[in-house]
Write a structure and sequence with these properties.
By secondary structure, the chain is an alpha+beta fold. The protein has eight helices and eleven strands. It has one domain: Alpha-Beta Plaits, CATH 3.30.70.20. It starts with a helix and ends in a 27-residue tail after the last strand.
Length: about 300
């Protein structure tokens, strides 16, 4: 579990106990400065440990430490070839609007202040110092963390991580749209569907990858199939012989914001230096998108 949450639970959340470090997505705070989401996590974990299902009790374990899974499906995204075309965004929206995770509502789409529910977004920004700058296209979706902070924080058990493949999902029938999972996620990858009033996120197209009515080559997430440059890889990161594991190992794949201790399953392949840009090209990018709520 993320160290600050483990310390908080171990310290009982008292005034003298450990505190959660500043977190921009943490949302409201309770008395004494403790995050409401963290306080709910402690209460929710305690309740599931005492009254939850066998799967929930297994997850809660020792101060919320999840068991190590033998299989973990994930995406590996190659920042060197992503061109920011948003094909992954639109294909994800199309598939999940018509699949078991949808519909994904859009509010006032052609108005002055449109909003919408997306499982995948692409942020675009400039990195480096002129004239050695480069444009970075950075796709972001749920990272299906091994130690997902959105799971123990959920007071109803709607957020859960599957044992068989490590995918983090939301049970809409249990979700009460309290947004605790959104506050707990350091990556900002939970979204509220305003129409259905449930929290939503990337499912890795779980209704597609196991669909035997599809040809084997099509049993991949919609975003992977749609990418025109092959920037998105999909597979089991726990299998050392899988395509994704080889890419991570051979090309220096890295986790996003590892300092949070969530052990995200999704990885990124860094950009390579572009010697044709400027006179002092930057080193290989280990890109981290700007913080804040801006969306591209």
């Amino acid at each position: 579990m993320m160290n600050w949450l483990k310390d908080l639970l171990a310290g009982g959340g008292t005034e003298a106990g450990p505190r959660m470090p500043p977190l921009q997505t943490a949302g409201a705070t309770a008395a004494g400065g403790t995050s409401v989401a963290v306080a709910a996590s402690a209460a929710g974990k305690a309740g599931r440990a005492a009254n939850g299902s066998a799967a929930e009790r297994a997850y809660v374990g020792d101060i919320g430490k999840p068991e190590t899974l033998a299989r973990q499906l994930a995406l590996v995204i190659d920042l060197n070839v992503c061109v920011g075309c948003h094909a992954c965004v639109t294909s994800c929206k199309e598939w999940n609007s018509s699949g078991s995770a949808g519909p994904l509502a859009d509010e006032n789409p052609y108005g002055a202040n449109p909003t919408g529910t997306f499982f995948n977004r692409v942020q675009t920004y400039e990195a480096g110092v002129f004239p050695g700058t480069e444009t970075i296209h950075f796709p972001k979706s749920c990272l299906h963390c091994e130690d997902a902070p959105c799971v123990p924080v959920c007071p109803t058990g709607a957020s859960y991580k599957r044992k068989e493949d490590g995918i983090v999902l939301v049970d809409y029938d249990k979700c009460i749209a309290c947004k605790y999972c959104a506050w707990a996620c350091p990556y900002g990858m939970r979204e509220l569907d305003e129409e259905r009033q449930v929290m939503t996120k990337c499912t890795l197209c779980v209704d597609r990858i196991y669909n035997e009515e599809l040809a084997p080559r099509d049993r991949k997430p919609a975003c992977v199939l749609a990418c025109p440059t092959g920037a998105r890889l999909f597979g089991d990161v726990k299998d050392p012989d899988s395509e994704v594991s080889k890419a991570i190992r051979e090309r220096g794949g890295y986790e996003l914001m590892p300092e949070w201790g969530t052990n995200p399953a999704n990885h990124y392949l860094p950009r390579r230096p572009n010697n044709a840009v400027g006179t002092n090209p930057p080193e290989t990018w280990k890109a981290t998108p700007p913080t804040g709520s801006e969306e591209a």
